[in-house]
Each structure stands twice: as structure tokens, then as C-alpha cells.
Write a sequence for this structure.
């Protein structure tokens, strides 16, 4: 259902991102309900896809996924992480050699596509375009979802290329400098490292609206989201830093509370104790899942809220 509101003029550029951090956190907390309500099926589907792809990649039966674990390692795998801990990236590397990490990331990326419909719902909600649908089942697929898939694979390819180039330059540079017995002057590092950091922040701020624009507008235009962020780089970067600091405090507080609560429930014993009851492990697992869902909502919400501010859709919902 598309929301409607009275037409209004966008806020001045100097005010467009004021309070976006608090708005993102508030939206994320309020969205936990529908995320759990609509996300259970994509989570199950994603896990099944991951296990099947992993089994095909390592060339062994499904049950052999657990063969590399001792009883305690299985318990640890059940305690930490949501999906990728049920498979072993080392076995992929043993099977495929240097291509192992690339193949492993590919199967994780493919399995994560099951979450695309929920991500699209979250982006539309954060951008104040549509409310999350009712019900407890969601697996719709259309133009917006296709655009999101294109973005995810483009991001994976981009990250792979950057990683390959960085590794090539790193190993090549180390070999050349070692062979020639060169050393990098301290002043060069002092100049280059901050320059790379500034370049990364600038790239992040200029491209942050590409994903929400693809989803909201159902359009693969890249130039328009770049135009929308023109002159907003500083505000976006400061907002991102503020959100990162806020999330660091929130995660620290949640981690301490969760740790102490589980410790008390487990009779003062650490969660990885081999004698830890199954229901305590389940509580800890659900706690970690809730934390991960919240972190994901914050990431989606931040992009959606910035889009809403700069596109003039904010406060329509």
C-alpha cells in the first residue's frame, strides 16, 4: 500500500539531515516487530540454500557438513553467528584452492538473496514510501527485487575486484620493495593513509543512495542518486560517524546485558561450557539473532532515511 500525504517543499539543504541518526534508531526499534513477522521464511529459505550450495561445492553429502566438528565445536557453532557458521570455509578452500574464498563468498551471497523481499520492504518503509504488508508470510518478487539483486551482485563483483587489486598491489609492492630494499618514508604514509580514508568516505557518501533509489524508483539510473548527494558529503559522513558511535554504545550495552543474563540463567557458568543446557544455548542464539536483525535494520534504515530527507519524502508516513 502506497502512502499519500500533502505536497510540501523539501527542507533546506542545511537542515535535511538534522536528527537522521535518532530517526534511524527509532525506526529500527519500531521495525523489529514486522521484521520478525516477515523474516522467518526468508531466513529458513536462505539457510537451506546455503547448506545445499555448500554441499554441492565441497562435493560431499549433506550430513558431512558436521563431520569436521567435535561436540564442543558444534556447540560453539550453534552459539555464534546466524548462517555461515553452519558451513566451513576451510573445506571450500581445501576443495577449490585459491578460488575457495571467492566461491565461499559467492554461495553466501546467493543464499542471502532470499532476504531481498524483506530488504525491499524495509527500504520502502524507511523511505516513507510504503508501509510493511500485513500477515506472517512474505515472498513477493518483482521489478524492485530484481533491481536489488542487480545491486547485490554488482556490489559483490566490485568488492571482489577491489580485494583482488588490493592483494595484487600489496603482494607486488611488498615483493618489489623487498627485492629493491626500498623503504616507504614516514611522511608518505602520513599523507597517503588519510588520503585513502577521505577517498573512502567520499565514495561511500556519494554512492549511499544508489541502493534506495533502485528500490524506491524501480530504476537503474545511477546519475540521479549521485546528483542527490551532491553537496551533502560532509553531512552524510558526520551522520554515519554519529550512527557508528551510537551503535557501538548500544551493542556494548546489549552485549553486557545479554552476557550477564545468560550467565545468571546458566548458574554462573560461561555459555561455551560443555554442560550448558540446550535451552540456554537457544536463548543466547535468539538474542544474537535479535541483535543481528537490529543491526541490519539500522543499515537499511540509515540509507532509507537519508533518501527520504534528500528526496523530499520524509515525514510522509
Amino acid at each position: 500500500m502506497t502512502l499519500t500525504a500533502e505536497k510540501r517543499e523539501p527542507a533546506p539543504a542545511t537542515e535535511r539531515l538534522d536528527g537522521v541518526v535518532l530517526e534511524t534508531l527509532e525506526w529500527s526499534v519500531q521495525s523489529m516487530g514486522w521484521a520478525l513477522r516477515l523474516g522467518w521464511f526468508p531466513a529458513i529459505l536462505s539457510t537451506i540454500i546455503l547448506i545445499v550450495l555448500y554441499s554441492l561445492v565441497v562435493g560431499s553429502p549433506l550430513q558431512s557438513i558436521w563431520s569436521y566438528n567435535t561436540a564442543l565445536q558444534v556447540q560453539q557453532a550453534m552459539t555464534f553467528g546466524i548462517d555461515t557458521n553452519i558451513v566451513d570455509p576451510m573445506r571450500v578452500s581445501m576443495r577449490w584452492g585459491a578460488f575457495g574464498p571467492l566461491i565461499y563468498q559467492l554461495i553466501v551471497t546467493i543464499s542471502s538473496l532470499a532476504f531481498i523481499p524483506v530488504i525491499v520492504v524495509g527500504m520502502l518503509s524507511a523511505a516513507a514510501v510504503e508501509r510493511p504488508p500485513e500477515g506472517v508470510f512474505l515472498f513477493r518478487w518483482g521489478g524492485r527485487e530484481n533491481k536489488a539483486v542487480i545491486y547485490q551482485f554488482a556490489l559483490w563483483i566490485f568488492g571482489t575486484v577491489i580485494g583482488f587489486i588490493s592483494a595484487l598491489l600489496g603482494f607486488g609492492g611488498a615483493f618489489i620493495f623487498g627485492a629493491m630494499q626500498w623503504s616507504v618514508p614516514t611522511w608518505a604514509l602520513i599523507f597517503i593513509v588519510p588520503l585513502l580514508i577521505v577517498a573512502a568516505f567520499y565514495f561511500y557518501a556519494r554512492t549511499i543512495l544508489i541502493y534506495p533509489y533502485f528500490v524506491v524508483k524501480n530504476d537503474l539510473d545511477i546519475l540521479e542518486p549521485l546528483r542527490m548527494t551532491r553537496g551533502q558529503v560532509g553531512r552524510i559522513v558526520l551522520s554515519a560517524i554519529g550512527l557508528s558511535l551510537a551503535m557501538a554504545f548500544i551493542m556494548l550495552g546489549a552485549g553486557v546485558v545479554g552476557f550477564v543474563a545468560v550467565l545468571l540463567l546458566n548458574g554462573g557458568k560461561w555459555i561455551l561450557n560443555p554442560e550448558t543446557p540446550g535451552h540456554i544455548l537457544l536463548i543466547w542464539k535468539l538474542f544474537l539473532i535479535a541483535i543481528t536483525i537490529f543491526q541490519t535494520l539500522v543499515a537499511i534504515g540509515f540509507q532509507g532515511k537519508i533518501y527520504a530527507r534528500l528526496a523530499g519524502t520524509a515525514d510522509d508516513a
Summary: The CA atoms of residues 205 and 232 lie 8 Å apart. The chain has one domain: 20-311.
